[in-house]
Amino acid sequence: MATLPAADRRAFALKISRHSSAEIRKQFTLQPGVAQFCQRSLSTPGFSTLHLPSFYDVVDPVDFEGFLMTQLNNLDSELAQELGEFPEDDLDIVFTPKECRTLQPSMPEYGVELDLHVRDCVQTYTQEWLIVNRKSQGNSDTCSLKNKGSRKDLHKTLQKQTFESETLDSSDANLQAGPRQAQALPEETSRTTLATSDFDLRSLQPDPRLENLLRHISAEEFERQNKEARGTNRHAELLALYPAVDEEDTVEIRPVPGRPKEHLGNRILVKLQTLKFEIEIEPLFACMALYDVKERKKISENFHCDLNPDSLRGFLRSYTPSIDLSSQARSAVFSVTYPSSDIYLVIKIEKVLQQGEIGDCAEPYAVLKESEAGKTKEKIEKLKAQAESFCQRLGKYRMPFAWIPISLTNVFNLSTLEREIPETEGLNGKGSTSDKRATLLQGRRFSERSLSLEDSSPVSNFKTVSLTLSTFFKQEGDRLSDEDLFKFLADFKRLSSLQRRIKTLPGTLKLEISPAPENLGYCLTPELLPVKPFLENRNRPHKEILEFPIREVYVPHTIYRNLLYVYPQRLNFANRPASARNLTIKVQFMCGEDPSCAMPVIFGKSSGPEFVQETYTAITYHNKSPDFYEEVKIKLPAKLTEKHHLLFTFYHISCQPKQGASVETLLGYTWLPILLNDRLQTGHYCLPVALDKLPFHYSIHSPEKVPSQTQPIKWVEGHKGVFNVAVQAVSSVHTQDNHLEKFFTLCHSLESQVSFPIRLMDQKITEATLEHELKLSIICLNSSRLEPLVLFLHLVLDKLFQLAVQPMVIAGQTANFSQFAFESVVAIVTSLHNSKDLSKDQHGRNCLLASYIYYVFRLPDPQREVIKPGAGSSGISTESRYYTFGRTSAMSVGSKLLQSRVISCSNPDIAVTQSATDEEVKNIMSSKPMDHSSSRMSVCVEGTNDMPTVCGSSRAPNKKHFHEELALQMVVSTGMVRESVFKYAWFFFELLIKSMAQYVHSIDKQDNPRRSRFSDRFKDDITTIVSVVTSEIAALLVKPQKESEQAEKINISLAFFLYDLLSLMDRGFVFNLIKHYCNQLSNKLNSLSTLISMRLEFLRILCSHEHYLNLNLFFMTSAYAPVSPSPSLSSQNSSSCSSFQDQKITVFDLSAEYRQQHFLTGLLFTELAAALDADSEGISKVQRKAVNAILSLLSSHDLDPRCSKKEVKVKIAALYLPLVGIILDSLPQLYDFTISDPRSGKVRTGNTEEEEESAGAVNQNVALAIAGNQLNLRSFGITLISLPYRQSATLSPDTTRNLLICFLWIMKNADQNLIQKWIADLPSMQLNRILDLLFICVSCFEYKGKQSSDKVSTQALQKSQDVKARLEEALLRGEGARGEMMKRCRIPAGNDRSVGLSENLRWRKEQTHWRQANERQDKTKAELDQEALISGNLATEANLIILDMQENIIQASFAAECRDNLLGGVLKVLVNSLGCDQSTTYLTHCFATLRALIAKFGDFLFEEEVEQCADLCQRVLHHCSSSIDSTRTQACATLYLLMRYSFSSTNNFARVKMQMTMSLASLVGKSPDFNEEFLRRSLRTILAYAEEDADMQATPFPIQVKSSMTSVAFIRSFHIRICLEQVLDLGFPKQ
Question: 1093-1118, pLDDT tens digit by residue?
């Protein structure tokens, strides 16, 4: 390469005055009281004064819709279209079929005319979900994209970067230790070796040389080649390499609620395999269920199972003409919502009725064994024949026989459950509870089953258990009730003498208990519906067993279920004649009084038909007052009438055959009407028993209140109750709640033609009282019990919303229910939020309500006026006006309400005169055109000018729009209703949004642009709502701390509301709402950190919009480069802008024009600037939030496939250019990463004086002075005092790192020509500031390897802190050589700070790397390797971006000719980067840049930058000893070029030789990774360059090079010899 003319090499050569950094610091003092910005003082009545920077005022946003219509055609719209622009169908209404677990949905019986209520229920359970989809939302959600695995597979696409540190760690021992070990010889041998072979460099083989090093290339061509080389194999997405943003700040994530679905508890699969006793003489029948001993409750229905062999089953062939497959199941799936160690699986065994007590019948089973021969075998055969005879005669009757309990403690292990609660329950459970046991035991009643994305049962983790039981307990005939069973189980649990007190029977029961698979094939529901997947190639299906939870389960109904369970409990016939002894009850479900009216709706037992018409209870032999444990399961008809009833018939069964006598002897009847006052009867009853045939029409009366008959009925014991029975319903149709029943009944009376009066429970409702009673029922809805209210929540809300907009005419009068319906909704929403048993998400949204809005809610059916017949009704026109409560005074009520809210937060109902209207409300209302000409008496119009362009002729003249009615009700609400509305504003906001989306979907978008989609009156209501909510937020924030969390939740809900409005309404209108929100908060809050924090969270949500870039008109940035029309933020902050404002590129300024045109981004940058400027309590957290918000945005752009094209990235980067100015202004606050890193043992060896400030922030004024600006040192202090800087708190390392990565992202993606032009316009002081920033970036993004995880043992990391502290204290304070050595290692040379300060600095690693290393202990080696690969690529890419910036600075400054000298600053950055652990990729480009600098500015480098040249020599010489061939090749070429260009001046060459000598002396023996053997090879390579350089052969240069290399080799060998002698003399091992 030819030497350039001096003129071309002296572009930086203006000589500057040189002063040490220590001198500058001593003379530099910052006078107190220098105001950073001119500030404004805000004072609001009731609030303390808050001083805000002048730039904090929100500018008026651009008229977005008008701008798009007028200017979009003239601009670069292609990029906007690539990002989706604003497609009209961006919000899509999607009807999604409900997921059905069964092959066919559960439905009422076919062909039956359904009641309106049943019809509504079925429609609610079967209709499709209505979901509002945002087509592009996934592209803008940073965290969701990262969770999808965008970083998970990133390592597969990355190139492995090679680092010297890892090469040394993983290489063979001989690679590094070999040369040292070769010198560790006996003294005589070493001396002769050093004297002969070490200086003979020519005997070594040189490394490969760079081909183009000695060619003649112009500087421009050299730089072009370097630039082209740097641009190859670069990673396009910088932030894909950067760790994910802290999720603590990701408020913009609005969780999608889980789909409502059927509740399923923890499911276990129980398979019965074997049931047999010592003798097999008769069929036995098993029935099992779950019992909770602690709660004393049966928690599942019965499962009947037949395990008999075919031979025994044949005994009953005459009684089982058909056997359905569903009745042959031998495995059951039980569900348990509240697991407990007190749950038992109880298996009861019955046998066919036979003569004798239970004990007598069980005796043979206890004493006989089938394996015995002789008389025993004969007895068994005889018993078998008797059993067959009983089966043929009494086969349909059963008797109790035995039972066996199985504890499920090992299955429901609470300690296991506590450990294995899935993470999703943290989201869908009770939030931040610390009691995991409480979360488990109580949280299961939450709605997580319908809300969590995946049902992950903790019980599913237990292992399959196979049990073989050999002991059965004999049933006691007088102790068969559930109460007796619970006593037995309690004794059994205590391991008491239960077996001694109860007779046992030997036998064998084998069963298997396992977690139920999620998709269990060939399974039936409790209604016997086949569950997907239903594979019909199996012999026996599985059966799901319905659970009876011990406590409430708050999950809305989603399937049709209508089951009734009847439990006969006790019959007292003690006073009956002696014949009534073997008692049984026949249970039937009747639809009439004729015997043929028995309905086949009773579920059959095992080995029989699915449904039967009758069932019999088990018989206790010779017991006149038997207890029963029977469970009769009935499938209720969908349509019930007063004729439906349960009929109980009582019989005595003759066990002995008598000639001509019937087996059954009728004893009596009783019955239970299913409906009482049209409501399903459930509960416990004690019924009388009639002896005679029942009279006609008996079923419409209860047996206790039968009217007197002409022929009196004979009753047992004089009409006393002698039969106890319990009835329990599990129904998604019957509410079993008085308030809900009344509400639904009255609603349906409006929808159908009914005859008055209506009978409702005990009262009769006439047409005149219908309206009053309906309003009363609406008000009382919230008085319902919480469980039924939740179970029917979807239907209740649908009905209330229908009433809110449904015109009603009752008895000729218009009835209005809007206000009552709205207040009832508010009360329900409040109750659900206040319940501790219901789950909320991280934003405080009740999950049940969120799920309802997202999936279920839809606009009420097309409204029609419902006119109830009555007086005057014929005169009502179909277009008559209906009235809404409060409509006549909506405007005045709204304004007065606002006054009361703003002036008195404690009492919102205080009346205020009209003249006291809040100024803020006036401003908001006047900020947009309003049409007050039309009356607000109703949104239902009669051809008026309300919204003529919205619906056109298709709109019904008297149609209410739901969104308008809802908004109005929110505005005119008062008192507690108003407080609840805004406390839980998220619900009403999301309701508004979904109704608006459906409305927009239904209109013609071509004829209805955004500006005219919604009426002005609706916009007025929205404006009022936003204003009031903002006032509410401010009022809460000035209250005690306990209210701040509530304020944050409301703030987030308001942000999401405006976020959604941007997709539906006039965006300029929404921007104005945002502006007024910001101004309102600024005027009302008295804490700057709170203000910025609230506004930041608000803006972060808005900026997560899928069309955020288009909303900010990012495609305008290329055309936006005028002179700033007004002082920008950068102008106010930066001293460099005071003299260079004219003709300066202003795209880097946060000007008023920028903030107006790029509204959301401007607001976000304003918050960041204010946060960085502030110095109040708690501001560090706010600063972190502000930086993270911007980093999250940039990450989303990098991960957004719409932004992958380079030209799009350029436009996006241009949008963020003002961030560069903000970062430069915050340079004094950045954390200094250039301090020594005690963890790695590496100390920067550059300017040690500059490390004096390393413990804190980089003092900008000192940094500028050290960088060498032209100012005279005497006037320096005065000039810098005028700089608008003040001491500010240092940003944390993480915040600084996040801010710097944002800076590098912009520099990487911005238009490089624009960057160069900007640099060319900057004064020297600003350029030095950029170089200081780059200097910090180099140290910030230095490669840290695998966080020392492979180097530091686990034991070392787990040492206690006090042991570590004592060890270091002993070393630091110890006397002698060790103490001095430790102190020298800890304190850099020339540093005169105290040891105490150094100790504090030493512990800084506890804040960063030490903790990280501990946290990484649990990661696998593969994960650590992946992270190291990614971080290595990040370090390489970051340093290459820094290198690009330095090239830009060099080129721009070189082109400007007369510029201050910046070469020193550039060299500082390069030297710093060479001192860090760098990849070979970066080092290749860095050395190329260095060679270009040497060629371009060699003279200046040698004459003026002596200090930097010395550092450069040391760094380059250090890399000459690298074990990596490519690094040595680059370093040798650079060192040779340095010597070659210095040869032009004798002084310069001598200086370079001296610096090389001094550098080598400082490196040899001190640097742990310095390798002498590789150094010798590098010296030989430099000799080879000198020998091959044809241009220099005629000069003494080759000889000088040889002499220099020999001297260097001599110094190396001499130092080795001295060190070796010391080691041998002292007897210490070689380190």
Answer: 999 999 999 998 888 888 888 777 54
